[in-house]
Amino acid sequence: VDSRKSWIRQPIVVVLGHVDHGKTTLLDKIRGTAVTKKEPGEITQHVGASIVPASVLRKVAEPLKKYFPKVKIEIPGLLFVDTPGHELFSNLRRRGGSVADIAILVVDIMEGFKPQTWESIQILKERKVPFIVAANKIDRIPGWKSNPDQPFLETIRKQSPHIVNRLEELIYRLISQLYEAGFMAERFDRVKDFRTTVAIVPVSAKTGEGVPELLALLTGLVQRFMKKRLVTSDEPGKGVVLEVKEEPGLGTTIDVIIYDGVIHRGDTIVVGGKDKPIVTKVRALLMPRPLQDMRAHEGKFVSVEQVVAATGVKISAPDLDDALAGSPIFVVSSEDKLEEYIKLVREEIESI
Ligand code: GTP
Ligand code: MG
């Protein structure tokens, strides 16, 4: 009998795209939305990631009810990995794919596909990560009337016909470029089958127009097609190392994304190292200190007893100097399984 407690975790979302097409601005906008619309006490900031809680998804989706009446939110939120780009994405490896459950490919709608857009799509294809396209910077279409933070379907109704036509042309260019890359694509509100067609959401990361649909669509897609992948339980944690970092007073630490299970302070972990897997014990699990608690004499982090998937957390432990970004990290369930875990980490490192 399996007595473990299980839950649906936050899907892990990554943002990719060409330089200057607006990845950071979009993440900042999403993070800002999460902070201003959250309930008191809800934590949105993680190490290397930020969470948009379900309560925020509900509020953001509210004005969309008349277009999509049936969206019920069952996930606890969305976890966005904070440092966007290729290099980061390649650190999100997991056997047979990626730790990213879904991606946003950001394309400047005025520029269309650029070299790193093609590269990003190639990487997503190789790792089999589903994605949606954020057709960004719609506010830069000459003559566009901005309606800050409104749904795309509202703001489009307030534009003059020739602006609507111009937008359609620009979207059509993206559809052709996606076709060249091997994907059927369509504006999100015209997609009939999301399993075969990539959805394009026109947005402005600057004004927030279209961001409600972007969040609602991510939510809808993962709930419809990925719920099984999102089920986790209080089993020994699994994660991936995003970054290896020196911290004043703590020495070498690792920033990890836990995508499955639980990790406790004091747990034995195995993590990939330069020459061989490192076996060590978690000295501290560190989360960013909430801004309102900032006091001059305290550090940037608060120590917690345990974290559950999905989470971005900093781990302080002895012997992490040789730890490798991109390597797996496993909590060892019992000492007699240690050799098994070491072998597993070694195999995964070799497959990178
Ligand atoms: P890299 O991290 O260098 O790859 O760039 P990025 O993709 O993170 O782009 P970033 O968010 O830094 O944006 C690049 C520039 O475009 C900045 O000057 C932003 O202010 C601007 N920008 C981003 N999104 C929008 C938008 O929706 N509308 C307008 N008008 N400007 C935008
Ligand atoms: Mg950036």
Automatic annotation (TrEMBL):
Q: Which residues bind GTP?
A: 17-24, 82-86, 136-139
Molecular function via GO: GTP binding; GTPase activity; translation initiation factor activity
Q: Tell me which GO cellular component terms the UniProt record holds.
A: cytoplasm
Q: Does the keyword GTP-binding apply?
A: yes
Function, as annotated, reads: Function in general translation initiation by promoting the binding of the formylmethionine-tRNA to ribosomes. Seems to function along with eIF-2.
Q: Does the keyword Phosphoprotein apply?
A: no
Species assigned in the record: Staphylothermus hellenicus (strain DSM 12710 / JCM 10830 / BK20S6-10-b1 / P8)
Please identify the protein, giving its name as recorded.
Probable translation initiation factor IF-2
Q: What family does this belong to?
A: Belongs to the TRAFAC class translation factor GTPase superfamily. Classic translation factor GTPase family. IF-2 subfamily.
Sequence ranges assigned to domain Tr-type G in this UniProt record: 8-227
Question: What keywords are annotated for this sequence in UniProt?
Answer: GTP-binding, Initiation factor, Nucleotide-binding, Protein biosynthesis
What highest taxon heads this organism's lineage? Archaea
